[in-house]
């Protein structure tokens, strides 16, 4: 799952949200240096990522990108799932995604002093370009795929990934549909038991 799903699966808890969103910048036991609720967000993020990677629908979905992107196929699926979540009327109707996105940016701003420096540097761009909302649009997904390539050590292009996304759109949407209800239930239960 990418930023939108991690934000959504923080269940409107600000400290959980902060840890959940910047978790990728926290390695191993570094999580111990954060306040307890923020640390719960970091651990929730890790549990979500593990569950996502092991889910049968995700394993199948990754096969679409694997021949061209190998290990990075997971990153493209994460972005793809955020696109379908952004357009999922079970979770976001009318203008609620826009409202949700702005609430997330406002909430995160209050935790910037505890965020890792790389996340603090990224945050203004996330807010300015409204990354969370723009997962809804195919142009936003295309830019997000470019971001995956930019942050990778070995990839050189994202056009193939975007073409695969377009060509397999309905199949990928079905993988999301098969996956996300179970993910939602898992994340809620995991958080309750922390």
Automatic annotation (TrEMBL):
From the Swiss-Prot or TrEMBL record, what is one GO molecular function term? [acyl-carrier-protein] phosphodiesterase activity
Source superkingdom = Bacteria
Q: Does the keyword Cytoplasm apply?
A: no
Pfam families the UniProt entry points to:
ACP_PD
Reply yes or no: does the keyword Magnesium apply: no
- What keywords is this UniProt entry annotated with? Hydrolase, Lipid biosynthesis, Lipid metabolism
Which terms under GO biological process does the entry name?
A: fatty acid biosynthetic process
What is this protein identified as?
ACP phosphodiesterase
Protein source organism = Niastella populi
């Amino acid at each position: 799952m990418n930023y939108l799903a991690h934000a959504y699966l923080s269940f409107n808890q600000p400290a959980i949200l902060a840890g959940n969103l910047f978790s990728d910048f926290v390695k191993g036991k570094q999580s111990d240096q954060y306040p307890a609720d923020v640390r719960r967000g970091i651990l929730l993020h890790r549990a979500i990522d593990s569950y996502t990677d092991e889910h049968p629908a995700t394993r199948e979905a990754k096969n679409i990108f694997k021949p061209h992107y190998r290990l990075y196929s997971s990153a493209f699926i994460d972005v793809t799932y955020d696109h379908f979540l952004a357009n999922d009327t079970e979770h976001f109707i009318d203008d609620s995604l826009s409202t949700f996105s702005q609430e997330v940016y406002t909430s995160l701003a209050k935790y910037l002093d505890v965020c890792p420096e790389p996340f603090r540097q990224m945050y203004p761009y996330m807010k300015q370009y409204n990354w969370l909302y723009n997962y809804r649009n195919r142009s936003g997904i295309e830019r997000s795929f470019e971001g995956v390539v930019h942050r990778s050590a070995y990839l050189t292009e994202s056009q193939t990934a975007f073409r695969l996304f377009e060509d397999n759109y309905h199949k990928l949407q079905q993988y999301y549909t098969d996956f996300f209800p179970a993910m939602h239930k898992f994340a809620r239960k995991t958080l309750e038991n922390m």
